[in-house]
């Protein structure tokens, strides 16, 4: 394989890399990575960066009553209540 073909293969693989990584597919056995040290190294670096990012912002589960809290807040802040029939309109400040 010529150097041009090799670089073309790398460019094509790297263009697909975001989709491949996003798919969750195990890329360890991807044919291009079997023969390309450059792209294998790139993938390893990306995986290291992704893991470090996950460590920065651990996933937190929301409280069980989150939606009830949101609904309650919406109801308490309902601007439609300010314009209920028989209620005087607010005056501009």
Distance between the termini: 76 Å
Average pLDDT for all residues: 80
Main beta sheet: strand number and arrangement? none
As a percent range, the share of helical residues equals 55-70%
Query: What is the N-to-C succession of helices and strands?
Result: HHHH
Uncertain runs with pLDDT below 50, 5 residues or more? none
In angstroms, what is the radius of gyration?
27 Å
Structural class: mainly alpha
Tell me the β content: under 5%
* Global geometry: elongated
Total helical elements: 4
The tally of beta strands, per DSSP, is 0
- Into how many domains do the coordinates divide? 1
Describe the 3D structure:
The structure is a single chain. The chain has 93 residues and is mainly alpha-helical. It has one domain. The protein contains four helices and no strands. It has helices at 3-22, 31-35, 37-56, 66-76. It is elongated. The mean pLDDT is 80.
């Amino acid at each position: 394989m010529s150097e041009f073909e090799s670089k073309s293969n790398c460019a094509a693989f790297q263009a697909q890399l975001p989709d491949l990584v996003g798919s969750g597919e195990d890329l360890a056995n991807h044919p291009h990575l079997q023969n390309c040290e450059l792209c294998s190294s790139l993938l390893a670096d990306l995986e290291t960066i992704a893991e470090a990012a996950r460590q920065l912002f651990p996933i937190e589960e929301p409280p069980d009553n989150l939606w009830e809290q949101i609904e309650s807040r919406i109801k308490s802040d309902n601007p439609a209540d300010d314009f209920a029939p028989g209620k005087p309109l607010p005056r501009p400040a």
